[in-house]
């Protein structure tokens, strides 16, 4: 059954009681192998997803499955140390559920991260990609079903799903830190299997630069409820067929951890610039 508005209100009320005087402004979603950033949160309140009413629980081994709420990069943040995915058996609405709850708690911006495979053959493992747009073709959509008008309109605009002013801020931060920042389109596949070589070739023809199994449901819901969005993908492998080798999930986590210093510097540099204003 689809969620109703009262479900989100109950979840938000539970979190609000535990986080005390903290007033988070940014929701930071950490993808595969990127959960280490949550360990840098100061004065944290830690809330496992399984304790929150109506929340789905992450079943992926490298996703801790908890909120860490506190100060990071000078901002009060809600950090999702791991997320849930459609491939775990959850609906698209369930995977994006935390975004609406964060909105009810006063969060105005989403900084979303993921590990991805490179479709663009000019990319290399270890590259950080600024997401400029995404492609979702036949996969589940989190807005299907009754519209919750308390969050947004029946048909929401996606022209600026990835906020232009936030993208420009990310470019400045990367340049100042000496970090090479690619830019590209994220192509959404549900997984859990990696894409076939033919699927990667098709995605390239359609304009995709990187491929992944998350992020898009969360960004759609963020756009629907008026949140600003900044997205980064970390290239942890080349897409199937780009190299003459099989893909391995362990490689994804190892590459993400190896890029920790650069990725952390970029995220921490961007957090103070996410002000939620229309620009």
UniProtKB/TrEMBL annotation:
<dbReference type="InterPro" id="IPR011270">
    <property type="entry name" value="Pur_Nuc_Pase_Ino/Guo-sp"/>
</dbReference>
<feature type="binding site">
    <location>
        <begin position="83"/>
        <end position="85"/>
    </location>
    <ligand>
        <name>phosphate</name>
    </ligand>
</feature>
<comment type="function">
    <text>The purine nucleoside phosphorylases catalyze the phosphorolytic breakdown of the N-glycosidic bond in the beta-(deoxy)ribonucleoside molecules, with the formation of the corresponding free purine bases and pentose-1-phosphate. Cleaves guanosine, inosine, 2'-deoxyguanosine and 2'-deoxyinosine.</text>
</comment>
<protein>
    <recommendedName>
        <fullName>Purine nucleoside phosphorylase</fullName>
        <ecNumber>2.4.2.1</ecNumber>
    </recommendedName>
</protein>
<dbReference type="InterPro" id="IPR000845">
    <property type="entry name" value="Nucleoside_phosphorylase_d"/>
</dbReference>
<dbReference type="GO" id="GO:0009116">
    <property type="term" value="P:nucleoside metabolic process"/>
</dbReference>
<feature type="binding site">
    <location>
        <position position="214"/>
    </location>
    <ligand>
        <name>phosphate</name>
    </ligand>
</feature>
<dbReference type="GO" id="GO:0004731">
    <property type="term" value="F:purine-nucleoside phosphorylase activity"/>
</dbReference>
<feature type="domain" description="Nucleoside phosphorylase">
    <location>
        <begin position="26"/>
        <end position="271"/>
    </location>
</feature>
<feature type="binding site">
    <location>
        <position position="237"/>
    </location>
    <ligand>
        <name>a purine D-ribonucleoside</name>
    </ligand>
</feature>
<feature type="binding site">
    <location>
        <position position="195"/>
    </location>
    <ligand>
        <name>a purine D-ribonucleoside</name>
    </ligand>
</feature>
<keyword id="KW-0808">Transferase</keyword>
<dbReference type="InterPro" id="IPR011268">
    <property type="entry name" value="Purine_phosphorylase"/>
</dbReference>
<comment type="similarity">
    <text>Belongs to the PNP/MTAP phosphorylase family.</text>
</comment>
<dbReference type="GO" id="GO:0005737">
    <property type="term" value="C:cytoplasm"/>
</dbReference>
<keyword id="KW-0328">Glycosyltransferase</keyword>
<dbReference type="Pfam" id="PF01048">
    <property type="entry name" value="PNP_UDP_1"/>
</dbReference>
<comment type="pathway">
    <text>Purine metabolism; purine nucleoside salvage.</text>
</comment>
<feature type="binding site">
    <location>
        <position position="63"/>
    </location>
    <ligand>
        <name>phosphate</name>
    </ligand>
</feature>
<dbReference type="InterPro" id="IPR035994">
    <property type="entry name" value="Nucleoside_phosphorylase_sf"/>
</dbReference>
<feature type="binding site">
    <location>
        <position position="32"/>
    </location>
    <ligand>
        <name>phosphate</name>
    </ligand>
</feature>
<feature type="binding site">
    <location>
        <position position="115"/>
    </location>
    <ligand>
        <name>phosphate</name>
    </ligand>
</feature>
């Amino acid at each position: 059954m689809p969620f109703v508005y009262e479900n989100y209100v109950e979840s938000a009320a539970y979190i609000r009681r535990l986080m005390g005087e903290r007033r988070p402004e940014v929701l930071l979603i950490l993808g595969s192998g990127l959960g280490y950033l949550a360990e840098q949160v100061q004065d944290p309140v830690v809330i496992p997803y399984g304790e929150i009413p109506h929340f789905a629980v992450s079943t992926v081994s490298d996703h801790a499955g908890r909120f860490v709420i506190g100060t990071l990069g000078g901002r009060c943040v809600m950090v999702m140390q791991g997320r849930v995915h459609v491939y775990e058996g959850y609906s698209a609405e369930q995977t994006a559920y935390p975004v609406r709850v964060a909105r009810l708690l006063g969060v105005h911006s989403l900084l979303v991260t993921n590990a991805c495979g490179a479709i663009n053959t000019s990319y290399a493992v270890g590259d950080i990609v600024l997401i400029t747009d995404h492609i979702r073709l036949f996969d589940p959509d989190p807005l299907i079903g009754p519209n919750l008008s308390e969050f947004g309109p029946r048909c929401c605009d996606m022209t600026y799903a990835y906020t232009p002013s936030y993208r420009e801020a990310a470019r400045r931060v990367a340049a100042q830190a000496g970090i090479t920042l690619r830019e590209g389109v994220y192509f959404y596949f549900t997984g859990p299997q990696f894409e076939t070589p033919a699927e990667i070739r098709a995605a390239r023809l359609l304009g995709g630069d990187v491929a992944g199994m998350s992020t898009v449901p969360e960004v759609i819901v963020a756009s629907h409820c008026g949140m600003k969005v900044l997205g980064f993908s970390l290239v942890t492998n080349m897409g199937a067929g780009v190299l003459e080798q099989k893909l391995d999930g362990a490689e994804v986590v190892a590459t993400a951890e190896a890029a920790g210093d650069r990725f952390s510097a970029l995220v921490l540099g961007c957090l103070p610039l996410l002000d939620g204003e229309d620009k």
